[in-house]
Amino acid sequence: MPLVTGTRLGPYEIAVLLGAGGMGEVYSARDTRLDRIVAIKILPPHRSDQADARERFEREARAIASLNHPHICQLYDVGIQDTIDYLVLEYLEGETLADRLSRARSRYPSCCDARLKSATRWMRRTVAESSIAT
User: Which whole number is the average pLDDT over 115-119?
Assistant: First the structure.
């Protein structure tokens, strides 16, 4: 069940659900300490008691924290409150990656497939190296 507007996770006040998938839900929220908008990804409650899901969520946080690139959002914070694991990320407005890839793929199908495969390999390697380092 999605979080309700106004719910607090630490100093973060939930505003609206931005999207949801198998591994999490993403909300926009207000950082009440720094008065800025952030994105919060939570591990859904039905997954929080699964050790493999929590481990994957933590691995994702470490991988994001190890990256520094203008096209990758920054990880600001991690936390757990009332059995809800969450990541606090830089909030970026704009189209989703899926929308952008779909639009580009229709114009340049072979180029996009090659770049997507290359980016996927790079991300998997980065996550694997992050996992080894812990």
Answer: 74
Which residues, in sequence order, are CB contacts of 106 under 8 Å at separation 6+? none
**What is the Cα Rg of the chain in Å?**
16
> What single DSSP character describes residue 72?
S
Cβ–Cβ < 8 Å for 130, 66: yes
Q: Which of 87, 92, 86 has the alpha carbon at shortest distance from 70?
A: 92
Class of residue 12 by CB neighbours under 10 A (exposed 0-12, middle 13-18, buried 19+): buried
3-state helix, strand, coil in the chain (%, to 5): 40, 30, 30
pLDDT tens by residue, 75-109: 999 999 988 999 999 998 887 777 777 777 777 66
**Structure-token pair, residue 113:** 């497939």
